[in-house]
Structures are given as C-alpha cells and as structure tokens.
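Dear Dr. H.,

I hope your travels went smoothly. While you were away I took the liberty of generating a structure for the chain from your last submission, since the lab meeting agenda had it listed for discussion. I wanted you to have the full record in hand beforehand rather than looking at slides cold. The sequence, exactly as received, is reproduced here:
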Amino acid sequence: MPLLILLHGHGNNENDLFSFSSQIPENWIVVSVRGPYQLAENSYRWYDAKMINGKIVINIDEEERSRKKLKQLISEITNKYNVDSQKIIVAGFSQGGNMSQSLGLGNPNSVTGFGVFNGRYNEEFSPYISKSIALKNSKAFIAHGSGDTMLPKTYVTENITKLKELGIQITYYEDSNGHSISTKQWDEFSKWLINFN
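The corresponding predicted structure, in token form, is as follows:
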C-alpha cells in the first residue's frame, strides 16, 4: 500500500493534520507524527527558528536530528507493513512542510514525493540535498495562501524557483487563505495523491 506521513506545524501536535486523514484515498496508510521538541502541553516543534536581521534562521542541528528520527520511522513502517516503495509521500504544514521537503530532497531513494503547505525553503539545508539521480524523479505538491502574512508569497516563489533548479516535478495550488490549509488545497492534494505514479 502507499504510505503518507503527515507532519504538523510549529506549536501543534500529531492530531492537527490527522483530522484530514478521512479525505485521503482509503488504500493509503496514513501516519501522523509528533515533533520531538516540546514547547508546552500538546505543543511541539521539529526545530528552533529565530528571526535575525529580518531573516528566518533555523537550528540545523535540531532539524537534522528530527530528520534522522523521521527517516528511521519511515524505514520501520516500510519494513513492518506492505508498503509500495514507489509511493512514499511526506507532507506537512509550515515547519512540518519544510521538514517534508527536506526529507524528499535529502532522501529521494526512500521518499518519492513530498507536500508543502505554506512552507518555505531552508537555506541551511542546502548541504544535505541528495546528489542521487533519483532526485530528478521526485514530485512535489506545493500549496500556499495568498493571504499568508506569516510566510508571505515571496517565500513560496523562492521555494518553487529552487525546486525547479533541482529538477523536481512540481504541482502548485494557490488559494486566498492565510497561514492555514484551505479545504480546496487539501482537495487538490488528495487528487495529486490519487494520480501519483
């Protein structure tokens, strides 16, 4: 069966995106994961990020530790269940979307596609991008809200430019929502999953 891993945004938890699981095609295994760093009760993150001189700077060491844990989890799920190795997708919102993209760009032999909802490209991740030829076969679903004031549209424009430079096959959908996932964005993502091959 195909596998979908869902990653929540900064300050949320695994229940956030799992609420969308009923809208995923029934043949998919869906796993929603909790970030390893706790902020408060029911509030987690994948890595620390700060605004420095008008630029978002992430703690790449924390990001790398989270990424390694996620890679291990995907490997365990793949080995335990009858997973289609050609259909392993990681998707997330905001910081979770950034993590999904990092997994896709860093591990194209084990993650065949990724979804990014209102996310961005982490420049600090650049040294970790895979040199494998498999990267050219990677597919990405990118969604962004034109009303997002937390991560304005310039971030998604920069991200798409970077992904195109890497040869990633991109499906982009834009809605008027703010820093959130709209129903229409998720509908388009579900269609992308159904047609993923």
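Two observations you may find useful: Residues 5 and 90 are 5 Å apart (CA to CA). The beta strands are 3-7, 29-33, 37-40, 43-45, 49-52, 55-58, 88-93, 113-117, 139-145, 169-175.

With kind regards,
E. W.
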